[in-house]
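Deviation from plan, reported transparently: pyridoxal-5'-phosphate complex.
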Amino acid sequence: MPDLADAASIRAAVADLPVAFASVTAAAGRIAGRVERAPLVASLNLTERCGHPVHLKLETRQPVGAFKLRGAMNAVLALDEPARRRGLVTASTGNHGRALAYAAREAGVPAVVCMSALVPLNKVEAVRALGAEVRIVGRSQDDAQAEVERLVAGRGLTAIPPFDHPDVIAGQGTIGLELIEDLPALALVLIPLSGGGLAGGIALAVKTLRPDVRVIGVSMERGAAMAASLKAGRPVDVTEEETLADSLGGGIGLSNRYTFPLCRALLDEVVLLTDDEIAAGIRHAAMEEGETVEGAGAVGIAALLAGKVHADGPTALIVSGGNIDPTVHRRIVKGDFA
Ligand SMILES: *Cc1c(COP(=O)(O)O)cnc(C)c1O
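Because the crystal trials were delayed, the predicted structure below was used instead.
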């Protein structure tokens, strides 16, 4: 990581990155009016605790309940006409799969989502309800991904991956533009970190406009692939483990091209949390902020509550998503999570 006290070195690093700031501003124009401009709301409770203004960027308010709609919408709208006619494909069963199905339907583009036979029926139905064709193949995520590759080769479908794609990253980066517009005094941003599309995109926008803003990625302690990769200096695999922040699981890809270089150049720090700390974040969101937030979306709140990050000025937390099993949510809010 560069010396982030030095604005000139950041500007030089940004100029060298595999995704350009201009792609983020182009994405903002493309997706305007097709995704929500999620509200940035003050948290009185966290502001009081931290002694600095703390704001929540509520991406839970997107139509599919997560920020992933920004990247998916930008990637779909960036396709040329022949690619639109042939259609899209992905193997994601989570927030990206839903976002891509929604974006494709809005744009009138056919979409196929490949899933293994082990994916729970509620996830299958959620994607189907958004108008995508669901193809059940094999018994693992690898089998589903192999089907994606067959459809790309055989039918000329365009695969849109969940994070390591310039248009996806640029779409997520539009959050950074909105933060600087809405909170010009911004000093610190906490961003949930998995594959790094969200953190890489936001950091690209924020550091280009305001190199002095600290940008920190937040992951769970166990199975944090980007944190392990940054430490190793190259993309590495980690063992996937159960976590309350289920949207933060999974690897970054050993042949990662975009998000690893972005995160390496632009993140000031990565903070890791236990499941107990994440549960406290979910509980705080429900009890103090009146927001239903999934584990991945609560890590910014959790990092402040756990004292693992100290706010030193106006702070924005990216509340990235709200898709949590209601039964699990109720149990956590009641406090019987261990
Ligand atoms: C995908 C996702 C993340 C992580 O985004 P990356 O771009 O993979 O780092 C965080 N929160 C939620 C709710 C997500 O769906």
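The chain has 15 helices and ten strands. We consider this an acceptable substitute for the interim report.
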